[in-house]
Amino acid sequence: MSAQVVSSVLAGIAFDPHIRGVLVIVVAVTVLIGGIWLILSTNVGSRLGFLVTLTGLFGWMAVMGGIWTAYGIGLVGERPEWRITEVNVADLEEAQLEEAQGAPQNEDLPDVGALLEANPEVAEAFDEGTTVRLGDIADVDEELIADVNGWSIIGAAELGEPQTAAEAALIDGDAAQFETSADYVVLGGFETGGKPERDGDSVVDRISNKVTSTLQVTHPAHYAIVQVQASLPTEVPEGSAPLPPTADADEPVVSVIMVRNLGNLRLPSFILTLVCAGLFAFCAYLLHERDRVVMADRAAAGAS
Predict the structure, then answer these.
(1) Where in the sequence is the domain holding 115, given as residue range(s)?
(2) Residue 153 backbone phi and psi in degrees, to 5
(3) Which of 268, 213, 297, 216 is nearest to 65 (CA)?
(4) Are residues 119 and 246 in the same domain?
């Protein structure tokens, strides 16, 4: 290793948080674990005290790892996220992802006005003059447009996460189409696949869906498509609030196709739990064997 590399590494080390973090760990291990070993060694001896300390440490870490695994906290892995597979312009039938080729096109989607006219109870949920999209209707009654060519409409309330992933691809990705989020209008989104959702909000539906979802070991691929369209240029009069962007019907619809990556959020803490539980069992076995030897020696000494 050259002197330049060493100097670069040392230059990147700061007192806070690097040196401070090392000092905190060293002091914590020395005071907490070392203090317990010191107290035990004065009563049962240094070697036995060390073994008892290790047994308690691994047992506590196994319990802590189990809690981390249950709640998905502490030592976490990769979080679930939407991963972009491709950005399609104008024609989903030419998409590289085979599952996306059958996604609903504009002509396959039901007319919003006709839906509201045929379902006045749904129309009452929106203020007069409000621009209503299919995602807004799905929030009110998801069964009304539950299946379009095997895809379901993503409600406006649930579109936030896939829309954020799509925005990163549309602005900063390799296939970027726009400069800012103000240059386009989000038309809506579709999804298909994944584990089946519950049929209702009753306690029975929640319990049955939880049981069947847990027993289903495999995770079917979960796909989503977010569609956007370039917005019309608008001029904001001086002193007035900016108007909401309007989609340009002459521009092609851009579809961001993505797949759900489930990540491995609980895997590191689960591995920690298994390792520490195994070490705890091994240390407990050594303590048990030691007790058996001691009891055998005491019995032999009493007999003699």
Answers:
(1) 81-194+221-261
(2) -75, 130
(3) 268
(4) yes
H or E, element range at 136: helix 134-140
Q: Please check whether residues 279 and 233 belong to one and the same domain.
A: no
Number of domains in the chain: 2
Asked, for residue 70, whether it belongs to a domain, the answer is: yes
pLDDT tens over the chain, length 304 residues: 567 777 777 677 777 778 888 899 899 888 988 999 999 999 988 999 999 999 999 999 999 999 999 999 999 999 999 999 988 888 888 888 888 888 887 777 778 888 888 888 888 888 776 777 888 888 887 777 777 888 888 888 888 899 999 898 888 877 788 888 888 888 888 888 887 777 666 777 778 877 787 777 778 889 999 989 888 877 766 766 667 778 888 888 888 999 999 889 999 999 999 999 999 999 999 999 999 998 988 888 888 7
Q: Is there a single domain that holds both residue 58 and residue 149?
A: no
Map residue 214 onto helix, strand or coil. Answer: helix
Q: Determine whether 87 is exposed, middle or buried from the number of CB atoms within 10 Å of its CB (0-12, 13-18, 19+).
A: buried
Comparing C-alpha atoms, which of 59, 210, 200 is closest to residue 142?
200
The C-alpha atoms of residue 247 and residue 232 are separated, in whole angstroms, by 6
